[in-house]
């Protein structure tokens, strides 16, 4: 038994030091949640069909997608299995060394974002879980190896959209819209996000992809509620225009302060607008109507077994009222990998991986 334990620990240690076993950590909301909310009492769930209809198992996994989401596709490029949700009982032993997904549908930068979803993992708790994760791994491979694993890891964080859609603009005269004008709210969000990212750095993150907000006013849910003729909702697009440049500026300032390009801005707004404004160029028949839903643009309510469902998900830019299809996610990830400075600042993921392979 003792001999088996020694062999197992040696295996863990070797995995932690191999270049190809770079860990991947994910934080954020439903765009990147791999199923943590399945283990919570919450209304923000994607654990029933037709979610997962195009996933390899053709079963719902808790991903807000017909198939793979952005973290899955990044893992695919890295030659790794998708990271397990942190709350999954499957995340044990050597699987911990691959990384973990801490994201939870419904969360935002602010603690009061998503309160209507009840029990979700707010970003502060996600960071606490990251600290807990490191303690678990240290028990397997030791503190020094754990620190090295975290330092060398790739990190993805996606926040911000819910702070607008499910907070500021959730209802007319919301508490936050009464408290702040939109420009002041954006300034407040950026200052709070900076604290989150600084804490992530303090916990050991050294390569962090930070996505901006996508074109919130163009998603089918907002078209159904706010659009008269299919045009993107003006106020939400104004929020994008204010928030995303300030986010990039804040990341640049953080990098200057830290003396390294720790944080990389992914301009997911531009990535999405490419196929929203010209869907046919990317093989979509529409970027307005969701594949799964009901009402105008299939944008009302949730995607359920009773919803309208398109037969070919690859023809739709949006899977449900809020979330891109797997095909759209693939377009976004390709830009994360190879996009120029319009999309990735100061560098794309391929450049990051090439640089890090030399160190």
Automatic annotation (TrEMBL):
<dbReference type="InterPro" id="IPR036514">
    <property type="entry name" value="SGNH_hydro_sf"/>
</dbReference>
<dbReference type="GO" id="GO:0016042">
    <property type="term" value="P:lipid catabolic process"/>
</dbReference>
<dbReference type="InterPro" id="IPR001087">
    <property type="entry name" value="GDSL"/>
</dbReference>
<feature type="signal peptide">
    <location>
        <begin position="1"/>
        <end position="21"/>
    </location>
</feature>
<comment type="similarity">
    <text>Belongs to the 'GDSL' lipolytic enzyme family.</text>
</comment>
<protein>
    <recommendedName>
        <fullName>GDSL esterase/lipase At5g33370-like</fullName>
    </recommendedName>
</protein>
<dbReference type="Pfam" id="PF00657">
    <property type="entry name" value="Lipase_GDSL"/>
</dbReference>
<dbReference type="InterPro" id="IPR051058">
    <property type="entry name" value="GDSL_Est/Lipase"/>
</dbReference>
<dbReference type="InterPro" id="IPR035669">
    <property type="entry name" value="SGNH_plant_lipase-like"/>
</dbReference>
<keyword id="KW-0378">Hydrolase</keyword>
<keyword id="KW-0732">Signal</keyword>
<keyword id="KW-0443">Lipid metabolism</keyword>
<dbReference type="GO" id="GO:0016787">
    <property type="term" value="F:hydrolase activity"/>
</dbReference>
<keyword id="KW-0442">Lipid degradation</keyword>
